[in-house]
Amino acid sequence: MLGNDVPPTVAECRVCGGAVQECLDFGQQPVSSAFVDPDRADAEVFFRLAVGFCTTCTMVQQLEEVPRDQMFRLDYPYRSSGSAVMRKHFEQTARHLLETELTGPDPFAVEVGSNDGILLQDIANAGIRHLGVDPSGGAATVARAKGIRVRVEFFEETSARAIRAENGPADVIFSANTISHIAYIGSIFRGVDALLAPNGVFIFEDRYLGDIIEHTYFDQIYDEHFYLFSIQSVQAMAATYGFSLINAERLSVHGGAVRYTVARTGSREPDPAVAELLAREHALGLGTPDTYERFAANISRTRDDLVALLHDLRSKGHTIVGYGATAKSATVANYCGIGPDLISAVFDSTAEKQGRLTPGSHIPVLSPEEFGNPYPDYALLFAWNHADEIMAKERRFRENGGRWILYVPDVHIV
Ligand code: SAM
Ligand code: TMP
Ligand code: ZN
Fold first, then answer.
1. What string of DSSP letters covers 58-78?
2. Residue 207 phi, psi dihedral angles, 5° rounding
3. Of all protein residues, whose CA lies closest to atom 20 belonging to ligand 2?
4. What are phi and psi of 42, to 5 degrees?
5. Which of 175, 195, 315, 382 makes an SS bond possible with 204, Cβ 3.0 to 4.6 Å?
6. Ligand 1 pocket, residue 83 CB under 6 Å
7. pLDDT at 2
8. Centroid of ligand 2 to alpha carbon of 1 (angstroms)
9. Residue 326: what pLDDT?
């Protein structure tokens, strides 16, 4: 637990129905991507951000579900293509799909959570039948402008059946950084079952629980990340719905992720990588309460260190800003009590976030063009997963004597 007063609760696992034991409580948190209009700052929605693990299937999951249309809607501001590293990652992923799963006659690819079309653009350009499904209308408009077909709705059993009726079966259903966001996971798997060709594959990438615990990436916990997947829990989840985990690949993006490939049970041979990663994972103790107690202690220490450092720097008259108005930063700012008194502004390249206030903490979001007017003394890097890209872009900040503050894997200055 993290020092809050609410007693831990036991809930029912959203995957297997087993008992979920609460292990982390971040208190009241805003919707992480609901950037606030400065004139309407009193209309925010808060929820309790608490996490538990299932004592049966080991799935780590939240205890309260934020209604999906409060998170993903017309004005959802996240745009996947803001990062050159992620553009390259998805270009390579699209090429991989084109060379492996999309080689038959008239193949059909569906993406769940296609956002601004970062992945599908290369599949569309290759002339392959495709369909993106994403409820966030603003992002879908950007994708459509690239010539990509998108249905603006939630993927679930009903929409999957409609897609199947209109387009026939899908050879591959791909998804990145979206399946772990979907609490109603049974409907997703029933939808995949309805839409996927008999020998098709469902491939999804998501943050890896092993990395989150090992490196104290506590800010990977926010409303959208309803589940924190591991190899073991995904294997159990797939089996619950008649599928098998047939491959698992470690990815370096977003601080550490895994690309899971699942297929109908019996339709494909599992790759030896699954057993290898599972064996390695057992050593991490992801299913045991001790692990979460240690994780909670590390999180509390990071909070104390970060708050102490920011207060110390401010008391000495230094200026501090944030960099990257990430969804992750909502957990950091609201859990640590960081507001405009400590951090005067957060710089972010997303036009949809600029001119607004950060959720809950109400720090103004500004364009990176204003970062050097004048440079602050310190910048807290909320977008630490894009550190190389941002530090290279903002080289002049350090040349001018500025220093970056990082809080993962622990609080340090570079
Ligand atoms: N795939 C992109 C990437 O990896 O950068 C976007 C990830 S973004 C964090 C999650 C996306 O999933 C959002 O665009 C959101 O609207 C979408 N989403 C959420 N629930 C969904 C659902 N049930 N079906 C389809 N898309 C969904
Ligand atoms: P993410 O960690 O969820 O991908 O969000 C990254 C945020 O950081 C997003 O709001 C865009 C912002 N960003 C910049 O401001 N500059 C950059 O160079 C990069 C890569 C991201
Ligand atoms: Zn379970």
1. --EEESS---HHHHSSTT---
2. -50, 145
3. 83
4. -95, 5
5. 175
6. no
7. 64
8. 30
9. 98
* Index of the ligand 1 atom closest to the CA of residue 133: 25
The answer to whether the CB of 206 is under 6 A from ligand 1 is no
Do the Cβ atoms of 405 and 378 come closer than 8 Å?
yes
Distance CA 382, CA 208 (A): 19
Q: Using a 6 Å cutoff on CB, does residue 324 contact ligand 2?
A: yes
The sign one gets for the Cα dihedral 164, 227, 238, 283 is positive
Each residue's pLDDT tens digit, 323-352: 999 999 999 999 999 999 999 999 999 999
**CATH number 3.40.50.150 is the correct assignment for the domain at 80-289:** yes
At residue 242, the 3 state secondary structure works out as coil
**Segment (H or E) for 261:** strand 257-264
Q: What integer pLDDT is reported at residue 42 of this predicted model?
A: 76
Low-confidence ranges of the chain (pLDDT < 70): 1-8
Ion ligand 3 residues within 5 Å by Cβ: 13, 15-16, 18, 54, 56-57, 59
Q: Is 4 left (phi over 0), alpha (psi -120 to 50) or beta?
A: beta
